[in-house]
Task: structure prediction
Amino acid sequence: MEFNDYQKLANRTLYGNEQVLTNLALGLASESGEVVDIVKKYAFQGHELDEKMMSKKIGDVLWYLSQIAEWNNLDFDKVARENIEQLKQRYPERHAE
Result:
């Protein structure tokens, strides 16, 4: 699936008004915190790494990111491409094609 396709399909679940961006930013922070909590429990509390829950929470983070991009009329594929180009410049020795 392409990021733009995901972005459009995910958008059908977005509701709200002028407070949408605030809701999305808070949701992103909350879901990111849940990813961090899974890592913390694994790294410092002796829990098994819950890959199923990690996948679900990363999916939730992806949803929030896609909708923040959508709300700002940002092409999600372009955001991903530009980030890869930035990483290639930042880490040229690790560049793999």
